[in-house]
Write a structure and sequence with these properties.
Elements (H helix, E strand, L loop, with lengths): L1 H24 L7 H9 L20 E2 L5 E2 L2 H10 L7 E5 L5 H8 L3 E6 L2 H13 L6 E4 L12 E6 L8 H5 L1 E11 L6 E8 L5 E9 L11
Parallel strand pairs: 3-4, 3-6, 4-5, 6-7
Antiparallel strand pairs: 1-2, 7-8, 8-9
The structure holds S-adenosyl-L-homocysteine (SAH).
């Protein structure tokens, strides 16, 4: 009986996640099969504070601890698609936050390195990722502006906080053929989601994708 109740609870979110993917993500044109499968599988409700669980699958960003936010599901899917990841590729995330984006990338088969400047969030996200079966994701507390030299170069880099211009160390740590997705702009403005690519000769190109709103990248000591 207890088992049946627990199983029901565990499965409860799935039809709702299915609806989230169908109505918010596929409906807006995301087609990458690995992204869609990961968004169906990762339990987003586990990444938001307990009081906000009931809102976890709604079509918007949500506040998490320490005054930060977890992005809207569609934006997570869009940024994941723009990374054009193949299984086994190395990806650096700047701004671990709740760990949700990192879990989606891990579910897509990427080798994920994620940096968070707020110590409490880094520790919490690392514990949560481990508990949910994403223990291979490497999380460290530090200033992601500087990238993660020991593990560079990366086939893909995703910045989940707003910055302008794009941090030079991140472009340096991008592998030839690599993609970097970043919300470019000042925090008080709407930012532009941009994709930078580095070709085999090391030449960087930029394209703009969509206006977005992210919390700022902050510099300096760990918090
Ligand atoms: N990707 C997250 C959402 C990130 S919100 C998720 O899926 O939940 C942006 C995060 O960037 C915040 O947690 C903020 O603390 C962090 N951040 C801001 N500046 C940073 C920096 N210089 N280095 C690393 N993380 C930073």
């Amino acid at each position: 009986m207890l088992l049946a109740v627990l199983l029901t609870m565990a499965c409860e979110a799935e039809p709702r996640r299915e609806a989230m993917v169908r109505d918010q993500i596929e409906a807006r044109g995301i087609t990458n099969a690995a992204v869609l499968a990961a968004m169906r599988k990762v339990p987003r409700e586990e990444f938001v504070p307990a009081a906000a669980r009931g809102l976890a699958l709604r079509d918007g960003a949500l506040p998490i601890e320490c005054g930060q936010t977890i992005s809207q599901p569609y934006i997570v899917a869009l940024m994941s698609e723009l990374l054009e990841l193949k299984r086994g590729e190395k990806v650096l995330e700047v701004g671990t936050g709740s760990g949700y984006q990192a879990a989606v990338l891990a579910e897509m088969g990427a080798e994920v390195y994620s940096i968070e400047i707020v110590g409490w969030l880094a520790t919490n996200a690392a514990g949560r990722l481990k508990r949910l079966g994403y223990g291979k994701v490497q999380v460290k507390c530090g200033d992601g502006y500087l990238g993660w030299k020991e593990h560079a170069p990366f086939e893909a880099i995703i910045v989940t906080c707003a910055v302008e211009p794009v941090p030079a160390p991140l472009l340096e740590q991008l592998k030839p053929g690599g993609r970097l997705v970043v919300p470019l702009g000042r925090p008080e403005q709407t930012q532009m989601l941009a994709v930078f690519t580095k070709d085999e000769k090391g030449t960087i190109s930029r394209r703009n994708v969509a206006p977005v709103v992210f919390v700022p990248l902050v510099r300096g000591e760990k918090r």
